[in-house]
């Protein structure tokens, strides 16, 4: 009995790390990434709710950036362009454009991943904002005046998801680790640029954008892993039908 149980556990563990299995390595890595990102989000959210030292850092950084933003009109206008491009209408337009490009490349499962990730993640973030109800930074002469809640940053979540999906797809098409590293680095730079624009313009605190990145990574792991599993199951069934 014990030997049989050990054998079953060994087969189960081997399947979880097999690149060919329907519920193999991709699912194991996806679940691990999701859990790590969720743990990061929970830690930041808990710190914000409890008024931990990071909230003092939030205030100091927000005040420092706001003071400098009024002295750098060129940088301010550039970051205003970045933030407007990644607003809700802009992100939906970019997502539609990316989806059309993926369909043209016959990457329909990746298009499904994109649709589930970006609009779905944006809706999830709205629910998070209304859960925490954190007020935005307040200044005497604000650059942006917003009435919605601050935590987590919606722009940063959407950017993490859009550029995350594109980076995952392009990385699978690339040859060599240098090309993959360049793709991932470019996606990270775009996310950081969007997050930085929200901080510089006084729309968010540092913890808002950090939590948004963690939230986006968790939802990205769910969407990429879920659609990948669906594709593998469909391929396995099609292969099984052909064998008959």
Automatic annotation (TrEMBL):
Every copy of the Phosphatidic acid phosphatase type 2/haloperoxidase domain together lies at 110-224
Q: Per its UniProt record, what SUPFAM superfamilies does this chain match?
A: Acid phosphatase/Vanadium-dependent haloperoxidase
The question of whether Transmembrane helix is a record keyword is answered with yes
Per its UniProt record, what InterPro entries does this chain match? PAP2/HPO, PAP2/HPO_sf
Which superkingdom? Bacteria
Pfam families, alphabetized:
PAP2
Signal peptide span per the entry? none
Keyword DNA-binding listed: no
Which keywords does this chain's UniProt record carry? Answer: Membrane, Transmembrane, Transmembrane helix
The membrane spanning regions, by residue number, are 23-45, 78-103, 110-128, 148-170, 182-203, 209-230
> What is the official name of this protein in its record?
Phosphatase PAP2 family protein
Organism equals Massilia jejuensis
């Amino acid at each position: 009995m014990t030997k049989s149980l050990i054998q079953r556990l060994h087969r189960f563990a081997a399947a979880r790390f097999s690149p060919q299995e329907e519920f193999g390595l991709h699912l194991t890595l996806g679940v691990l990434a999701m859990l790590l990102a969720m743990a990061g989000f929970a830690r930041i959210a808990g710190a914000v709710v409890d008024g931990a030292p990071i909230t003092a850092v939030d205030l100091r950084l927000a005040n420092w950036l706001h003071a400098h933003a009024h002295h750098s009109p060129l940088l301010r206008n550039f970051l205003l362009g970045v933030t407007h491009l990644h607003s809700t209408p802009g992100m939906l337009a970019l997502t539609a454009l990316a989806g059309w490009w993926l369909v043209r490349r016959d990457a329909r499962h990746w298009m499904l991943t994109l649709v589930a990730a970006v609009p779905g993640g944006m809706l999830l973030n709205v629910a998070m904002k209304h859960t925490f109800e954190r007020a935005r930074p307040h200044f005497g002469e604000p650059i942006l005046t917003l009435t919605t809640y601050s935590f987590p940053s919606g722009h940063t979540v959407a950017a993490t998801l859009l550029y995350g999906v594109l980076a995952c797809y392009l990385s699978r098409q690339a040859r060599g680790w240098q090309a993959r590293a360049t793709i991932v680095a470019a996606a990270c730079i775009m996310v950081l640029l969007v997050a930085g624009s929200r901080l510089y313009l006084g729309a968010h605190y540092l913890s808002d954008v950090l939590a948004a990145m963690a939230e986006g990574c968790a939802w990205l792991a769910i969407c990429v892993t879920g659609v990948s599993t669906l594709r593998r199951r469909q391929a396995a069934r099609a292969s099984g039908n052909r064998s008959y």
